[in-house]
């Protein structure tokens, strides 16, 4: 098990994010001083959940304003930090201008944060939140891989500005990170590549794409059924743990696929049936692919006919053995993740019975 060094402050970018919330919670509970960057310090209501954690935790929380697109805006926040956790990056599937809404903030943001790390003598390690989306684009891509499984050696070659622009943004941002890392000798880069992140948030004001998926499972949007879509799923709390281990495990190197299980959309909803099946219109069957192809884009503009053709009916398999062996991760079962997440939606009034 890794040992957290409490002497040095750490920087967490995108502090109000889904993964960042749990990461900051764990750091503060471990007694670390956290320099947390947010886009706008005037939006104090977004900081309520983190402030509440900081009130009782032994660690110290300090806020800094920084923007992914502003060169040098992370300089003050990074001063004296030994570890930089770069979690800030847009996660939106439906965008009107992929270049300005996804690619620029992801790539330029990574460039700004990592270039600043090179200019900050105290920084020894950068932990980057990437994604399995930087490893593969569509489930059909897995047919060309050994054992039909994604591993850390693979890169996404099928996504572009026109097809899967979110995945393309993650791929380009991670490639930029490795370019910058290899051009210097001061700090080591460790990259976290989670699959679909699910599970309860530290704040009741949940805005991640994962939240929209689980809410649609419970609000009747999917009651007719779900596409036969293979996915990897990981608990947000396990993703936070992976970041900590990546920061404080001396031998951590390279990329790590962080994924708890290989599953499907239907299998995800099945975890909720025993407890919630009677009171919520949860989907209980798979929709035929032709039906999804015909109506999917009309019901969900983020779902294109090409993505349906390349993903529906294909399994997803990810190899998480490196994360278990080197980072010591123990993954929560899918049923725990799904039920804890669904319970939070009900408790916070996001889902009516």
Automatic annotation (TrEMBL):
List the SUPFAM superfamilies hit by this protein, alphabetically: NAD(P)-binding Rossmann-fold domains
One family from Pfam that matches here is: Epimerase
Highest taxon of source: Bacteria
Q: Where is the NAD-dependent epimerase/dehydratase domain?
A: 10-249
Q: Give start-end of the signal peptide.
A: none
The UniProt keyword set, sorted, is: Oxidoreductase
InterPro entries, per the entry: Epimerase_deHydtase (IPR001509), NAD(P)-bd_dom_sf (IPR036291), NAD(P)_dehydrat-like (IPR050425)
The protein's GO terms of the molecular function aspect are: oxidoreductase activity, acting on the CH-OH group of donors, NAD or NADP as acceptor
Q: Which PANTHER family match?
A: NAD DEPENDENT EPIMERASE/DEHYDRATASE, VPS9 DOMAIN-CONTAINING PROTEIN
Indicate what this protein is called per its UniProt record: Short chain dehydrogenase
